[in-house]
Amino acid sequence: MQILPILDDRFLKTHISKMSVSVLQITEKKDISNVLAMLSARFPWNEQFSHLKRVRAFKCDNVTLFQIIVTTEEQFNDECDDIISQLKNVGEIITVEVPSECPLTRTQFENCKNFWPTNFHENKYISKCLTGKVFDEVALQKILENFKKLMSLSCETNNVNAALALHKDNIVTYATSDYNYPLKHAVMCLIDAVAQKQLTQTSKNNDNEEIPYLLRGNDVFVIQEPCVMCSMALIHSRVKRLFFINKASDLNKLSCCPEDTAITSMKLHVGNKLNHRFEAWKITLNTKNISD
């Protein structure tokens, strides 16, 4: 069994875009503090450059050189000649390319170092996702068992899609697609079943026990990738994690869900303009997993 995280595209790219900046190249380390004092008034270090180190040292023909970022190439060309002449008295003005944004992964950081030093605060969990270290063998076995239950339910009901909700490894409820109603996809039926169950629990709750809002804190397992409608419903329901087997592009014509790849391509689950986001994992099962 293989398990693949569906991450924001920002974490998947290996190289970061670049921008051109004007730098002052000098040979004497003792001149750095004077240059920085000169630049701070005319070219303050703003948010645009917050991910960069302003000074870098490197060797060229066994000679250590120092480069100090002045400002963007465009802004530098618009400046009056007085500051330019002062800088040229200290060193040489050249144009170099630097990362235009902060690196988010170790790979991006290592690539950025090849042309300019940057700040980097590693997201340990994202690093585990990228290196396949989130789930241990016990957790992977539980995921496999849940999908076996789901596929068994799918076969028993002669339904190509089924969904399962778990809270702290305990099954909350199952659901399958209802082909008699075009909007009753497996995920929608699952959320409805959870809501009905919570409504019943609320009416019987004499101890004022807190009942979670819909799928808050729950993991959802589904055979087929949710469509846009189902994905938005999962967001509204505050689901914690989603696990699915088939991508929308793999769906056959019997499916209730249209082929719109809401998770794998549109990536609605990590939209930065939404008030909730959740993890999504694509599962690949082999014949041995299914037959065991």
TrEMBL record:
Biological process according to GO: tRNA processing
Annotated InterPro entries: CMP_dCMP_dom (IPR002125), Cytidine_deaminase-like (IPR016193)
Keyword list, A-Z: tRNA processing
Cell wall biogenesis/degradation listed as a keyword: no
SUPFAM superfamilies the record matches: Cytidine deaminase-like
PANTHER family: CYTOSINE DEAMINASE FAMILY MEMBER, INACTIVE TRNA-SPECIFIC ADENOSINE DEAMINASE-LIKE PROTEIN 3-RELATED
Protein name according to UniProt: CMP/dCMP-type deaminase domain-containing protein
Record organism: Leptotrombidium deliense
Lineage: Eukaryota, Metazoa, Ecdysozoa, Arthropoda, Chelicerata
